[in-house]
Amino acid sequence: MVQSTLSKFFTAEESRNLRSMYSAGDLEAVILQIKRRSGNLDNMQLNIAVMGDVGSGKSTFINAMRGLRSEDEGAAPTGNEETGMEPTRYPYRALSNVHLWDLPGTNSFGFEINNYLKKVKFESYDFFIVVSQSRFRENDAELAKRIQEQGKELYYVRSKIDNDAHALSMQGVDFSEGRRTILRDCVSNFQSVGVTPPAIFLISSFDLDKYDFPDLKSSLVINLHSIKSNAFSLSLPKIMLEIIEAKIRMLKKRVWLMAVLAGALGAVPVPMPGLSSITGFVLTVAGLIYLQKQVGLNDKFLQSLASKVSKPTSVLKMEMNHRVPSKIPPVIPRVLLGITIVTCMIAGVNYSFNPVTLSIFGAVSSFAFTYKSLKDSLEDRSEAVQQLMKSALGSD
Ligand SMILES: Nc1nc2c(ncn2[C@@H]2O[C@H](COP(=O)(O)OP(=O)(O)OP(=O)(O)O)[C@@H](O)[C@H]2O)c(=O)[nH]1
Ligand SMILES: [Mg+2]
User: Fold this and answer.
1) Which of 52, 159, 226, 340 satisfies CB 3.0 to 4.6 Å to 57 for a cystine?
2) Mind listing the pLDDT tens digit for each residue in 271-299?
């Protein structure tokens, strides 16, 4: 369904170039190219999820947005027509590269919200329109909460307001008075569950010139740029991950090979206790230096990048939320010490141990030590690259 994050912002050729620039070790060029793109998001595809309970009026709303009636060709099926259990995409031609996704009703798969969110791939949408009819529902609040937790925004749409208007007039209540009451009620319901009240629109999908329907459409146009920018910022770690993943996969294989080599060296019977650990340690340090070069994070690089993105190096480092992984992680000396002690103990207390047992111990401990240290370091570094991207391109 929804495309990969990288291809949402870059063409296939640009994506290939970004990956090959990173493989060639030019992390700075990758970051600067992505920064350039952040200034021009016109071609970005924006996915708007239209959510809400079964029958709340989602499909009719999408048709209304697209200027279609239910019976028109290409319109979303509405009412009693069979509605799919898969999200369906409809182009919103009034805004280029914007798609409206008709999602199954929130209660379509039972009432377990996590199950529902997983099924509809909730995280893949950039913006949300939650459609609700006749009264505020628990599900609306829960959805809004989940959306805001992702750092994304939503519009809250009270649909079928023509029915409310009719009911109000039957009771002799002025619509603007009723409208105020509905809005107040929505706001206080959101607040009572700790949700910042979103923009609220009272609409009828049958009266497109009335109520808040025109307002909703123009708000979308006005906010489009900020919605796109927010989506782009939130996507930066994922974009970076997609760029670096091929190289990280390759490096994982190398980590494995280095660990096997350390294990093989550790198996060689040596007269001096602890020597196999030292061999493993030396190999691990060599591996760490290699990973540092390959992943491309060091002080010199950070200084150069900081000047290009106009941010102090210290801020970049801090926001990376990681130590600059140019030093040996503090856990290594401790692990090494532990291994040495254990080796010494085994060798010292049971000096008459059979050499095969000692070889097996040396091989396993060297392998495990090297593998764990390098794997952790690689994971740290790849996460640091993602954080760095966010920090280098994020606003202050
Ligand atoms: N009066 C009135 N009826 C509406 C409005 N919007 C939708 N309806 C009716 O409400 C019923 C359900 O509308 P749908 O658009 O199919 O609702 P849905 O949320 O897509 O339903 P599911 O796909 O089954 O979850 C239909 O009979 C629509 O004609 C509206 O603005 N006013
Ligand atoms: Mg529907």
Assistant:
1) 159
2) 555 566 677 778 888 998 898 888 877 78
For the segment 114-155, what is each residue's pLDDT rounded down to a tens digit?
888 998 999 999 999 999 998 888 888 999 999 999 999 999
Q: Domain extents for the chain? A: 45-211, 244-393
Distance CA 204, CA 365 (A): 69
Instruction: Please list, in sequence order, all residues whose beta carbon lies within 8 angstroms of the beta carbon of residue 213, skipping any fewer than 6 positions away.
Output: 64, 201, 203, 204, 205, 207
| Residue to mutate (ligand 1; options 78, 160, 203, 210; most atoms within 8 A of CB) | 78
Q: Which helix (H) or strand (E) holds 89?
A: strand 88-91
Ligand nearest the Cα of residue 57 is 1
**Residue 391 · residue 320 · CB < 8 Å:** yes
The chain-wide mean pLDDT, for the chain, equals 85
Ligand number nearest to the C-alpha of 55:
1
CATH number of 45-211: 3.40.50.300
Count of other CB atoms within 10 angstroms of residue 247: 19
Query: Alpha helix (H) ranges present in the chain?
Result: 5-9, 12-23, 27-38, 58-65, 113-119, 138-149, 161-170, 175-192, 213-267, 275-295, 299-308, 313-319, 331-349, 355-393
Token couple for 68: 């279609």
pLDDT at 303 over 70: yes
* CA 81 to centroid of ligand 1, rounded, Å: 11
Beta-ladder partners of 131:
52, 157
Nearest to 198 by CA among 146, 240, 125, 250: 146
